[in-house]
Amino acid sequence: MKIKGLIISWLFLFIFNLGHEGYAQISNKINKEQIKTVYLSQNTLNELIVDNPCVDIARQENIHLLFDDLKLENTNYFLRIIHCQADWKPSPLNEIEYLADFNDIPIRYPETSMGTKISYKQFKISLPKVKISGNYIAMIYANRNKRDTVLTKRFSIYQNEVNVGSKISFAKSNYLRSTHQFIDLNLGYPANYLINSDENLKIEVRKNNQSKNVVPNMPKPMVQAIDRKLTYQFYNQENAIPGGNEFRLIDLRSTQQRLNFVGQINALDRYSEISIIPEQPQGNYSYVQRPDFNGAYVIANYENPNSPLQADYVWCTFILKSRKFEDEKIYVSGAFNSYELTSTNQLQYDEAKGGYLGKILLKQGIYNYQFSSNNPLNTNLEGNHSETENYYEVLVYFRKPGERFDSLIGYQKIQFPL
Fold it and tell me: What CATH number should be reported for the domain holding residue 191?
């Protein structure tokens, strides 16, 4: 009976994984309204929180997934890790091929907020170590029902097996010099790698930890087999990346005193409201250097800096004084909402106040944000400047001969300008 049961289990897993290749991409997503502030942490106080973290396979210790539940119900949550291909579609691998430990881990002993107007339970769980590099999804589901997906969170594990030699510079062509930045790229690979073309090789360039590939049209590389080197030559400006602008900032750490860029504080009995100082579109202004987190954010409470559970939730009102952009929708975006343009972070135009307004429920902290449009050609909101300080990540995926999955064999992070 035990052997029969094992055969049935293996058959189920085989069929389940066989269908993974037909699945759609899995993105960062929260499916329950009461779930807030989902992020991956390496357990440091006041750490910068980014959206799509990349972690060295040799440094997987102390990586935790955290999220808050504002309903305060006794819900049983479980963590499941899913291995994905380079395009974020689930790979055909069985979990025993990529996990060193068990999957479907219960999340126990949540902590309750202390002294906050909006109460919440904070759930925290350590991610199990993985055995192979690649893209991964941390999926939270409720009450042992994998169909009841609460949230999905992307992260990547890399193992540097190739030498990534990339460099960011100012755009070289005259008409892009003031607005764009260029990337130059080459790869050095070891002798045991049989790379004689770009077949099974995918390179992705991310800007400020966003999931978008900013160089989607990567040309075929020049192969120097003797030197074991791939060089990418860009002849048609494929490597030109809009510089963007420095991120805006709002400091929500206190509901008792106005910190940076806070206009008004309204402390009500059940919650607090904070309005930012009204902002203006920056697209038609010259570049001004400002320190920022490159889109990231920090969870913190000003009065109780060493007690994260005393960070409250506040309703933050964003204000953009502007003419109305016809046939466009305007949003507030940043790492705190995975740069997604959804109804929860959309601003509405107020004719009487002459601008766009919108409220978003945010946990106390310091947030970088930008104003975004559903029209990608709209550069009036933030503008593009070649001087803008950005950081870039280069990710190299490779499907090795005989394997069924994409390994993340190279990773480099570049700060520009230095």
Answer: 2.60.40
